[in-house]
Amino acid sequence: MLKRSTPLRDYFLLNINPVVRFLILSDVVLVGSLGLIGPIFAIFIVDFIDGGNAAVAGVAAAVYLVTKSILQIPTATIIDRIRGERDDFWVLIVGSILAALVPLLYLVIHTPLQLYAVQFLYGLIMSITFPSFMAIFTRHIDKHKEGTEWGIYFTLTDFMGAIAASIGGVLAQTVGFRTLIVVLVFISILGTLMIFPIRPYIRKR
Predict the structure, then answer these.
(1) Nearest CA to 11 among 124, 153, 141?
(2) Considering all CA atoms of the chain, what is the largest pairwise distance in Å, rounded to the nearest integer?
(3) What is the 3-state secondary structure (H, E, C) of 100-139?
(4) Which of 30, 36, 77, 79 has the fewest CB atoms within 10 Å, i.e. the most exposed one?
(5) Cβ–Cβ contacts within 10 Å for residue 161, how many?
(6) For residue 9, is pLDDT > 70?
(7) How many CB atoms lie within 10 A of CB 144?
(8) What pLDDT, in 10s, does the model give residues 114-124?
(9) Closest to 191 (Cα-Cα) out of 64, 22, 41
(10) Which tens digits make up the pLDDT trace of 146-192?
(11) What pLDDT, in 10s, does the model give residues 127-141?
């Protein structure tokens, strides 16, 4: 009988480098938290932003993506120039905490300009955080299992995002967007805390 190309244990993160394991678990939780509101964010904008409409939602998404896209290459270059992984680790921790708290700002804004400012801030934080995550993940990925472990990462995060999207819609309908955002922030902080176990494995040089 031919050996299974991807052992079932890998999908449960049992045969994976501990750094990669905890990074995947953390991002599964973080992506899940964001998935609670991501697909219905436009509805939130229409309901809670003065003059909010489809155009405002589109510009808000563009502000985040453009900011992150433009800034993440320069920040990634700076991260690569600093030897060792301690800077990557702490940038990842601090950035993840800040990113987890950003949705709270949605509770106090009322105008499109305020929304765009929050989206710019979110894009700025993610432009620093995302390269740090990718750098640590890439360095610790198991040799000859690069494709498998990236595949597992995207499979689990996409799957969790799909589940969260359906749950988020129900929660927004039943308990409201404000409660949903508080739940989102709480779950995001839990996901960030799951990064701390990788600290003993961080390379100093």
Answers:
(1) 153
(2) 64
(3) HHHHHHHHCCCCHHHHHHHHHHHHHHHHHHHHHHHHHHHH
(4) 77
(5) 18
(6) no
(7) 7
(8) 999 999 999 99
(9) 22
(10) 888 888 899 999 999 899 988 888 888 888 888 999 999 999 999 99
(11) 999 999 999 999 888
Taking CA atoms, 79 is separated from 75, 123, 132, in Å, by 6, 17, 7
Amino acid identity at 41: F
Round the CA-based radius of gyration of the chain to a whole number and report it. Answer: 18
Question: What is the distance between the alpha carbons of residues 143 and 78, in angstroms, rounded to a whole number?
Answer: 26
The amino acid sitting at 90 is W
Selection from 97, 95, 104 nearest residue 123 by Cα: 95
Which domains are delineated in the chain? 19-196 (1.20.1250.20)
pLDDT of residue 116: 96
